[in-house]
Amino acid sequence: AEMERTFIAIKPDGVQRGLISEIITRFERKGFKLVGIKIMVPSNGFAQKHYHGLKERPFFNGLCNFLSSGPVVAMVWEGEGVIRYGRKLIGTDPQKSEPGTIRGDLAVVLGRNVIHGSDGPETAKDEISLWFKPEELVSYTNNAEKWIYG
Ligand code: DAT
Ligand code: MG
């Protein structure tokens, strides 16, 4: 299997609304593997680093204030195609996302969309290294893998 890793974060709204287990369940039951997890309150500067690609956008300050407004659950998930498929599980704009997606099922507006997921291999790499030290990530064999991948 072509294993890859992606960075997924449950934003402060998702944490405060009690959606941590609901969101983790969706990645877990698909067959993806959790290899890193922690809860933290990112500083505003840290949020600015995370969203550096959006710093010219008018909503950048509000977005960084929001991300740093409370606890965030930061995770790394591993699996074949997890970057692209993780984005599928997440959906897009909550108003445009299909039921069955996380944002479609659990969020109403763009600015409170409960979850972040890396949008490609480069950002996944950058975001994982911003949020996690290498020793915070665990490589292991899950017993179900042979039933997930054949
Ligand atoms: P995504 O989180 O789907 O990758 P993005 O990278 O374009 O979306 O933007 C990052 C976050 O910024 C997004 O989760 C919500 C917020 N955002 C995006 N567009 C916005 C807008 N027009 N107004 C307010 N917030 C916005
Ligand atoms: Mg994005």
Automatic annotation (TrEMBL):
One GO CC annotation: chloroplast thylakoid lumen
Tagged with keyword Ubl conjugation: no
Main localization, broad class: mitochondrion
Keywords carried by this UniProt record: ATP-binding, Kinase, Magnesium, Metal-binding, Nucleotide metabolism, Nucleotide-binding, Transferase
Catalytic site positions: H116
Binding site for ATP: K11, F59, R87, T92, R103, N113
Reactions catalysed: a ribonucleoside 5'-diphosphate + ATP = a ribonucleoside 5'-triphosphate + ADP; a 2'-deoxyribonucleoside 5'-diphosphate + ATP = a 2'-deoxyribonucleoside 5'-triphosphate + ADP
Compartment(s) where it occurs, according to its Swiss-Prot or TrEMBL record: Mitochondrion intermembrane space; Plastid, Chloroplast thylakoid lumen
Residues of the Nucleoside diphosphate kinase-like domain: 3-139
GO molecular function: ATP binding; metal ion binding; nucleoside diphosphate kinase activity
Keyword field contains Endoplasmic reticulum: no
Family of this protein: Belongs to the NDK family.
Protein name (Swiss-Prot/TrEMBL): Nucleoside diphosphate kinase
